[in-house]
Amino acid sequence: MPFIDPRDIDLAKVLIRHSVKAKKDDLVYIQAFGLETGGLAHAIAEEAMRAGAAPYIELVDTETQRSFLHNASESVMKRRAKLEKAMMKDATCYIGIRGGNNIFETADVSAKQNALYAKHIRQPVHFEERVKRTRWCVLRYPNSGMAQLSREPRETFAEFYYRVCTVDYAKMDRAAQPLKKLMERTDEVHITGVGTDLRFSIKKIPVIPCSGSHNIPDGECFTAPVKKSINGTVHYNADTVWEGTPFEQIRLQFKDGKVVDAKAANRDQTRQLNKILDRDAGARYVGEFALGYNPFITAPMRDILFDEKIGGSFHMALGQAYEDADNGNRSSIHWDMVCIQTPSYGGGEIHFDGKLIRKNGQFVPAALKKLNPEAFGAKGTARKPRARAKKK
Description:
alpha+beta, Thermophilic metalloprotease-like, eight-stranded antiparallel beta sheet, five-stranded parallel beta sheet, globular
């Protein structure tokens, strides 16, 4: 039996009882990437059995996965997709633990191989089968690789990790309901900030508050822009990684919903960015817009499951729209990009139909103030940002 951190036992309870709500006769598919994740996977399996469910653990070595991405032919990709889709079809619940030590492990995988994986595995197995049909949740594991990205000792990072992952999600869900109702009534969104002046409509697009059901950690409320309504510019000040390649300081210009100009920190990143956005017809359109409000996440660490939940941030995803907040956009990518609007990152404002909703990362209307960090006792507990945004 692998070593089980006592905090993993508490986290397993959140995942099984709150996130996927496993019950008698469910099949819980636990896909654990990285050999260090075995203890948490075992804790989840034990909790699943206490709930009367049947767990199945798949432990994936990330270096073997990298080799597969490098070398698999299209026919091999199709055969593996058939196997993975069959497994996903049998599962009623899915928990994915991402615990690779090196976020850049697949940086040298070719665009062709990444496109094959997206076409034959990511899209049909995860976007079409897992997302649409299972009760699912994905999370990271607090290994040395994540600690290094956060620039903290591993134990210090682990303390932060378990605090943000086990926040009072029931309280968060109650606090998010007024925001959900407000966004459902909203037509025009106007966002301003350093390098950002963006307008779009979210009229009649469903709104989904997320409080630990699909992601751990959690803390966002998402919808999607009306596909061709976005106009203006946006500057994403949180670094991001796509398919193992890092990008910084992404700036996008939109016209009638489409990215017509895309730049990143340097010429090489800009070239790579545009190559990804030319992958298919939907990659230059936005499939998701969300506000982040986890009170304990205050600085980016190049991990989207954390960064998109940063309190005082918003994010937009280029590519595929989610079925439960669908604007009709289809793509083989779903790339979340994050802009932080707290004072440490230059501030900013968000207006709904001309009314100020959030200023410098803080919700302004009285009905929304229960989502601010102070409502969760988070004042004074924030991690320091790694870098400040530069005003230009």
